[in-house]
Amino acid sequence: MAAAPTTTAVTSASSTSTLIHELQHLRNTNVDDPHRVVSLVTTLIERGYAKRNDDDVWAFLEQAAQAALQCGQVASAQVCVHRLSSQFPESPRVAALQGMLYEAQAETAKAWEHYREWLRKDAADVAMRKRLIALHLSSANLSSPPRSKMDPSPSQPNREHGLQMLIEYLETFYQDPEGWSMAARTYAEMGCYPQALTSLSHLLLLAPHNPFHLLHHAETAYTIGEYDLALKEFLRVVEMSDGVKGAGRRAAVGAKLCIHRLTSSGNSTTTNSDPLLRPKRVEEVDRMLTALLIQDGGKAKGEEREVWGTWLGGAGRGETRG
């Protein structure tokens, strides 16, 4: 395996071959560092590398266009996409870049028509369909007489139609975690939390060991009052995490909030058949969480530490320690 090139500041002294080698390494290892790519690309373009016609330059231009779009460097992306479109007018990858360029230029109607036109030629293009769905979900002013299943209905809010398109897509491409994550996020933004929870359940079937997906599931369950489910999920995140930090800290706090809800008036755990939710077990779990969070909060100082200790002492109810 080739050694990773050392990341250094791009200067006039950096050789062209060194810059190209680093770009190739970033591309081959799927490292997501668009700002670094843009820095390298800018220098190479200034040296005239983009005007060459050998095979390597096309991969370079595609990488440059993607990074420029991510960083909002629309002018640079436009140069790269134009060159690629001239060379590969029928390439679906270049067509996707062209649509993304339209979006970056706030040419929403052009992007919409561009994606639809391409899907008329190739309805099986998954990447283009996902771009069209994402465009519908993020835009509110598209309107056109309906001509096919892929067109928005003028009598229906655009986001709802985009969600309908997404669900139809997931019926065919069930094993797409990104699609289920998008569905959950969209449902939550629309206030449809039960549907968001269902989407996250599908996501967990595909990626059961991702603590952030599990944390999102727990928080959504808490939002709709499913405190017993939320507690179990929060505790799973704590168990999966390396100490009480990041997702683990957030989950520990969420679990304590669940315990407060479950033990408050009207939510007694006394008659619950689940062993985890028996009063004695809940108290043990609460003490464990408090100990973990106190250990973590010991790094805080002054007023922040006092507030942290007060919250923990009252399990989120504002009571102080004795």
Describe, in plain words, how this protein is organized in 3D.
- Component of the ER membrane protein complex (EMC).
- Keywords: Endoplasmic reticulum, Membrane, TPR repeat.
- InterPro entries: EMC2-like, TPR-like_helical_dom_sf.
- It comes from Microbotryum intermedium.
- This is ER membrane protein complex subunit 2.
- The protein folds into 3 domains: 17-106, Serine Threonine Protein Phosphatase 5, Tetratricopeptide repeat; 108-143 and 156-182; 223-312.
- It has helices at 16-28, 34-46, 55-70, 74-87, 92-104, 108-121, 126-138, 158-172, 177-189, 193-206, 211-223, 227-240, 247-263, 279-297, 302-313.
- Helix 3 (55-70) packs antiparallel against helix 4, helix 6 packs antiparallel against helix 7 (126-138) and helix 11 runs antiparallel to helix 12 (227-240).
- It is elongated, with a radius of gyration of 26 Å.
- By secondary structure, the protein is mainly alpha-helical.
- The chain is built from 15 helices and no strands.
- The termini are far apart.
- 66% of the residues lie in helices and 0% in strands.
The level-1 CATH class of the largest domain: Mainly Alpha
Rounded mean pLDDT score: 82
Q: Estimate percent helicity.
A: 55-70%
Structural class: mainly alpha
In sequence order, what are the helices and strands, one letter per element?
HHHHHHHHHHHHHHH
Examine the coordinates and then state which fold CATH places here, giving the name of the CATH topology of the largest domain: Serine Threonine Protein Phosphatase 5, Tetratricopeptide repeat
**Number of separate domains:** 3
Radius of gyration over C-alpha positions, nearest whole angstrom: 26 Å
Which descriptor suits the 3D outline? elongated
Main location: endoplasmic reticulum
Family: Belongs to the EMC2 family.
Subunit structure: Component of the ER membrane protein complex (EMC).
Function: Part of the endoplasmic reticulum membrane protein complex (EMC) that enables the energy-independent insertion into endoplasmic reticulum membranes of newly synthesized membrane proteins.
